[in-house]
Amino acid sequence: MRIFLTGYMYSGKTTIGKKVARKLELPFYDLDDYFEIKYKISVTQFFEKYSEELFRKLETETLAELIRQEDNVLISTGGGTACFNHNMELMNASGLTVYVEMSPKSVFARMQASKRKGLCCCRSRRIKWKLLLRNTLRKGENITASPG
Predict the structure, then answer these.
(1) Burial (Cβ within 10 Å: 0-12, 13-18, ≥19) of residue 48
(2) H/E element holding 75?
(3) How far apart are CA 35 and CA 39, in angstroms?
(4) DSSP bridge pairs for 98
(5) Angle at alpha carbon of residue 25, lines to 19 and 29, rounded to 5°
(6) Mean pLDDT, range 37-47, rounded to an integer
(7) What is the model's pLDDT at position 139?
């Protein structure tokens, strides 16, 4: 069984994913962490040095690679993974997708409190627009979960 957690950055996908994977006795992968190990560069640095277009292409390839490697796994995807290329279709065809829903206000508060600033230098209003856009683009997860 493959389980994919999707949702906006700072929505809690990795935290939830680690706990659920442990309970289900499944290996756990954070797609961004896997990307950083594979390409030996942080996602933030990649965006600064290259382009989002190249990142999304390599992210899709990395997701497909993990799917080929693991039949039973829980994967926490990046904040935009489900919105680009054919990733949503790929995940739905390969396992169960769960959208971790978080309000823009909560996402913004988590970003502000985070030590990992990276890509999160944006205002609350911008987060609302991005969430609205991504929610329009992504529609397709099997389950929606709201952690709080």
Answers:
(1) exposed
(2) strand 73-76
(3) 6
(4) 5, 143
(5) 60
(6) 94
(7) 59
